[in-house]
Specification:
- By secondary structure, the protein is of the alpha/beta class.
- It folds into two domains: about 230 residues, Alpha/Beta hydrolase fold, catalytic domain (Rossmann fold, 3-Layer(aba) Sandwich), CATH 3.40.50; about 110 residues.
- The protein is about 40% helix and about 10% strand.
- The protein is built from 13 helices and six strands.
- A six-stranded parallel β-sheet has the order 2-1-3-4-5-6, sandwiched between helices.
- It is elongated.
- The two termini are about 15 Å apart.
């Protein structure tokens, strides 16, 4: 796991990634956030589509696109924070719900928290009669209406299987979600923005100015900065490398390297349930996707794990040892066999201070 924090900004309805420019400029010039790497996720949200060969994506499409972006474009980035505005918060929640419905809870474990600015959790009443009765038919607008069933279903999953979750499983993943409302927002009222989230707040501004901080002292920026620094503070500091006599040195020879690989596989097999293919798949879900896609599957757990371990050197730049350590600590927290694996990774130079060398 990297000591840097990836922050993904998700815009709202009829908007674009450019809406985040004020935040991005302030982060870039903040000496306290030098370990933060901001990214913007952009999706199509035009008022109309005049091209008969193109359609406007609905929220399910966008949520699946966000999941793909996190999995592939940012597959080597961990940990992450998602920051959303308006409809972007619904997109993030739908992504969580659909990922959990697919039984891929561990895939979400690298998300440290989600910050929602002016998210219409209960819909938006603004000009509702005109929106319902006019000729405008927009697949995204329909889900911004109050009492939308799809939004309610996703929200229920997020509350029960994310906010109130206590462990990472196929169907659950605990993630802190914080919802902020604008005190002058007539598009999304504070009641809708805060909904039933336990972590809430109200910031100065209307629906749009709430995400337009003009200084490092602006309350919206101060609030976001606190969440980013809190997320950075829980990034685990790499443990010191174990004594050299715990395992043969990784630098001795090809024979020595093979011994290290065998020792690492032996320690992996001592982890509870590692011989079960379903459990190994949960571990792989938290590794860099490019490695997993090329992993040679084998009915014998030892052979499959050898294939995995041998690929670590080739993909050293993706810090696979860090990802493996996080996966095991997440799935089997506090188990001594996991500590042994982390020691072996450190001795092999795949974890800790030597991992990037």
């Amino acid at each position: 796991m990297s000591d840097r924090l990836g922050v993904v900004f998700v815009h709202g309805f009829l908007s674009s990634a450019a809406t985040w420019s004020p935040f991005l400029r302030l982060i870039e010039t903040d000496a306290d956030l030098t370990l933060v790497d901001p990214y913007t996720f952009e999706y199509p949200s035009p008022p109309v589509s005049l091209n008969p060969l193109r359609r406007i994506p609905d929220i399910n499409d966008i949520a699946d696109s966000l999941r793909t972006y996190l999995t592939h474009d940012l597959g080597d980035r961990s940990p992450l924070v998602l920051v959303t505005h308006s409809q972007g918060g619904l997109v993030a929640q739908r992504m969580l719900a659909r990922t959990l419905a697919a039984g891929a809870g561990p895939e979400l474990a690298r998300i440290r928290r989600i910050v929602l600015f002016a998210c219409p959790n209960s819909g938006s009443d603004l000009a509702l009669l005109l929106r319902r009765g006019g000729l405008w038919r927009h697949p995204q607008e329909r889900e911004l209406r109050p009492f939308n069933q799809a939004i309610s279903d996703a929200h229920r999953i997020v509350v029960n299987q994310v906010i109130h979750a206590t462990e990472v499983t196929a169907a659950t993943c605990p993630i802190l979600i914080v919802a902020y409302a604008g005190d002058r927002d007539a598009v999304v009222t504070p009641v809708s923005a805060r909904s039933v989230f336990p972590e809430v707040g109200v910031l100065p501004g209307d629906h749009f100015s709430i995400i337009k901080p003009d200084s490092h002292g602006h309350r919206s920026y101060v609030a976001l900065k606190r969440h980013l620094t809190d997320a950075l503070s829980v990034v685990r500091v790499p443990a010191p490398r174990p004594p050299a006599d715990r395992l043969p040195s990784a630098k001795r020879s090809a024979h020595g390297a093979a011994e290290l690989q065998r020792a690492l596989v032996d320690r992996l097999l001592a982890v509870p349930r590692m011989t079960e293919s379903a459990f190994r798949e949960q571990v792989y879900d938290l590794l860099p996707p490019v490695m997993v896609h090329q992993l040679r599957r084998d009915g014998a757990a030892r052979l499959e794990l050898f294939s995995l371990v041998r690929s670590f050197e080739h993909y050293r730049h993706l810090e696979p040892g860090e990802s493996l350590a996080v996966a095991l600590e997440t799935l089997v927290p506090g188990h001594p066999a996991v500590t042994d694996v982390i020691d072996a990774l450190g001795t092999a130079g795949l974890y800790g201070p030597a991992a990037g060398g």
